[in-house]
Amino acid sequence: MIWDSGTDDGKDYLKMVDEVRRLVERFEGLNLSKDSEEYEILRKANDVLQTSMARVEEEFKHMLAHNRQNFEPERLSFRSTEDDSLDDSSRFSFGDESVDDSIQRDSISRGAEVYVMDLINPQVIPDLRNIADLMFDSNYGRECSQAFISVRKDALDDCLYILEVEKSSIEDVLKMEWATLNSRIRRWTKALRVFVRIYLASEKYLCEQIFGERESVSSFCLSESSKASILQLLNFAEAIAVGPHQPEKLLRILDMYEVMVDLTPDIESFYPDDNGAYLRTEFQDVLTRVGECVTSTFLEFKNAVGSNVSNAAFPGGGIHHLTRYVMNYIRTLIDYSNSLNTLLKDHGEVQDPDSTSSPDASPAYGEDSSNDFSSLCPMGLHFRSLMSLLESNLEEKSRLYKEDALGHLFLMNNIHYMAEKVKGSELRNVLGDNWIRKRNWKFQHYAMSYERSTWSSILSLLRDGGLHHSGHSGSISKTLLKERLQMFYTAFEEIYKSQTGWSIPNSQLCDDLRISMSLKVIQAYRTFVGRHANNINEKYIKYSADDLENYLLDLFEGAPRSLNSFHRK
Prior knowledge:
The protein is mainly alpha-helical. The protein contains 20 helices and two strands. The chain has a two-stranded antiparallel sheet. Helix 14 (378-398) runs antiparallel to helix 15 (404-423). The chain is rod-shaped.
């Protein structure tokens, strides 16, 4: 190739070709006779010019192809940082404790601003521009543009390869397992930002360097050289948008939506005229469909929460995996509040779930519910509705327990967990303090229901009713007293045996309930034994008040125990 011998040789060649061009231009301005010598010179000059244009076009393509500078800045490498945090929760499975802290949004390279790099060795840019000028001046502009597009189209395709974006049909994407799709979406989200903000910005700069003041040519070349790559990226987003709206995809699809929204001004800037109108329109259409997919997937998420079915009671009455998953999920969704408010704004009427009366509704906190609800943002309205669906589902699950007390404990644990998650995060600003107050009242209500279910009948044994001899109003029956104590001990041992296996994961809540029980049970026991000390033989006192108080501390540890080994002989 001429330029391989050095820039000077190339310049000399262009100078000679330009002289031929000028000769043709001058002769064509004359009214030459076909029989004249000048006409023959013109014909030969045209042949030389045509041959020369073919030659400089090859030089142009060779120079573009062999002076590429595709490099991957270290901060753009995704290979070692992939964290498939949602894989364990695929198919909206709530059976894995690890979901509690694993749900996170991706950073999606949020700091990646427009960064222009030299896609072609800067030393050859002047030569490329000189060739382009000559070809356009010689009326070979279309050939020059097509030469540029053919080389740069392949170069941008290689950029997608560097970014690990694989070519897949919509059918291929729809067949992918979630673990694979999850990884591909994350890679796509980062790749789109890098491709637009870095490679596309740099390609635009390259076009401007080579084609100079020919803005329409620069615009055309950028649109055509990048079209296949942009459409490949959009094709993947389209496939996700038309696929099934499975709840586990929501965070990833929101990432896709937000990066597209974020890049919309860039796309409009890179394709401002008719040359890029098709790509602008395609980008906007796919963005709209991805947004619709977000809305549908969120609503499907709500439906999945409401319809989640359990065939067996949750062991120990602790915090259900559904509760953990949903609360951590919506805490993450807070990061997407702007997008969700935009997308959910005009999507269906949402009724205030707290305005409907229920047997457990708190009269204290329902008065300003309607005003509180009406002031919520669209996302807040849907989150309230989602919380109501979760609570209703938990109430259904509580009915699976054979013991009413364990059902109450289960609801206490889960409602308390929900309230604490909201209180300690940005969800507080979304759902409102009134919502938190009502859940605080609810879990306290379930705690009292637990206490009544467990201890009311047992504490009745420590009352004096029925202990007197028939016909002797002032005389206490020692036999009945002994039987009462034995009945109390038997009932206490049964409670100990079962409820040591129950669970209250929150230590503060556990301590509060133990203290409340201790105040009622131990006080009643001390009073009963003290009142009848003269009528009860010491050998019938199986446990001291301090013993019982210590045994109450063993409850709710999640491991069943027995008092048999502690019995005094």
